[in-house]
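Q: Sequence in, structure out?
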Amino acid sequence: MNNELEQIHRDIANCYLCPRLVAWREEAAVNPPKRFAGETYWARGVPGFGDENARLMIVGLAPAANGANRTGRMFTGDRSGDWLFRAMHKTGFCNQPFAVDANDGLKLTDAYIAATCRCAPPQNKPTREETIRCRPYLEREMLALKDVKVLLGLGKIGFDAAFRTARDLGFVAEERMRTIPKFGHGVCYQLNEKLWLLGTFHPSQQNTFTGKLTEPMFDAVFEQARELVEI
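A: Exactly. Output:
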């Protein structure tokens, strides 16, 4: 990994800017559910991870209190990750369809996973101020990943964060800034000659258990991402 990404990852892991989130991530570690009793939680800011030459950048919401906040790796050890890595494996973006802990051998190829907020928030709802405070980490990652051609926002929060970050960094063509992209499952917007923005419903249990998001629906978005990175 290049030195720039390594420094970003260290800065995220050592971040204490949001007192409410610091307290919550640490509370989760002290009082885990029975199924994780005795485990040592990461309980810090969770860095992004993946291929430094990624052409696909995935932007999620935030670590789950007993998922990435426990394992220290995005979407690792929770049900949302089961859906994400299964779809990524089918489309060649990772080497295995599961992620249980940070040492399970998972490797991303041509993809990088980031988030809007790097600490687990109460009820999975960071405040606007917390999201804004965390934005520089996403900006730095987006700048460091020189080969990205597709931004994929998981859920409206991830989608909006991906667009706003790209816009603020000057990656959105002026003529394409007149209309703010509207989130929806399967939406696709071209931001400039070489950069695309995709949206999908978040693979949270709230969506997958109710059938709002199905496996074929989710797979289709990653199939489209694969097609776009190859253009």
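The chain has one domain: 3-229.
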